[in-house]
Amino acid sequence: MTIAFTLLPCYNRSMRKIYLAPLEGVTDSIYRNTFMKYFGGVDKVYTPFISPNSTFKFTTREFKDIDPAKNNVDYTVPQLLTNNSEHFLWAVKEIASLGFKEINFNLGCPSGTVVAKKKGSGLLYYPEELDKMLYEIFEGLPAGVDISIKTRLGKNEPEEFYDILDIYNKYPISELTIHPRIQSDFYREPIKLKFFDYAVEHSKAPLVFNGDIKTVSDIKNIEEKYPSVDALMLGRGLITNPMLALEYKEGLEHTALDLTKFKAFHDELLAQYIDVLSGEKPVLHRMKEFWVHWQSQFADEKAIKKIRQSNRIYEYKDYVNALISSAI
Ligand SMILES: Cc1cc2nc3c(=O)[nH]c(=O)nc-3n(C[C@H](O)[C@H](O)[C@H](O)COP(=O)(O)O)c2cc1C
Questions:
Q1: Is 0.85 topped by the overall pTM?
Q2: 11: pLDDT strictly greater than 60
Q3: DSSP code, position 182
Q4: What is the rounded CA–CA span in Å between residue 302 and residue 112?
Q5: Which DSSP helix (H) or strand (E) runs through 304?
Q6: CA distance linking residue 78 with residue 62, whole number of Å
């Protein structure tokens, strides 16, 4: 399949950059390309994490997600999750040889199995190991590749962040995205803005704010509170309302979701998953992951329930068509 890549329009310079966050099981290359085709408004998109290991090989699924034939290397940032600098550097060299310019290091994943292996936010609890790993990464880094980091504040206590930031400040990190929660907060507990304030005062790397941005006003609040912060990374808010980044870039406060466009976007996602996944179950599972987010755009809870309970693609399509045509 040939991808017609979307050219990024030049937006007003005073605006903050907006990045599409990585969400495993949601923002794969199919989603990212289809999102850019129908909505966009973002300056970078991140792949969900890839886990390099002692096989020194990407899995087929991982390679699909960084295949330059399926990704625009100019604005796609592959993300790595590992606690081994040799594995990290192997992956960096492979990915850089495909043309990508930036690679992101995941130091935020809160999942129990990941953390138990001292990866993601689990590595934050071992500052000496984190420091050693970053030292080895930056020592071995090929020229011309930027390493950015996506981090939480710590594992058990937000105060861990003071030492963690001292470590980050030793290295030429191209951008530091902070999700101001600790591991045990997962994605629910209130955001700890006080520690983001501390980063604004003390970080040497340019900062990216991430967490709970759902509306244009939320973006503007961050913009006002942190004039020096150049970019925001949006996850669930942007999946729920795929027009959010565009609304901000076009100076609109909020416009109702364009349901005709949303339907075309939905249908194109569905057609692609039918094409690449085998069997109805995996396709429905994939589409239902989106509805976890999309459902709040629709008032008809019964219709949403039918969609989420559908077992066959023809049923699913009927329920989605009925929901959208009744809402138009
Ligand atoms: C289902 C799910 C999967 C995620 N997968 C990843 C991932 O692969 N890499 C990563 O850095 N963050 C991942 N995240 C975290 C998001 O990138 C983001 O930091 C988080 O959702 C908070 O931002 P938001 O409030 O804008 O959604 C995931 C979050 C969710 C809910």
A1: yes
A2: no
A3: B
A4: 34
A5: helix 301-309
A6: 10
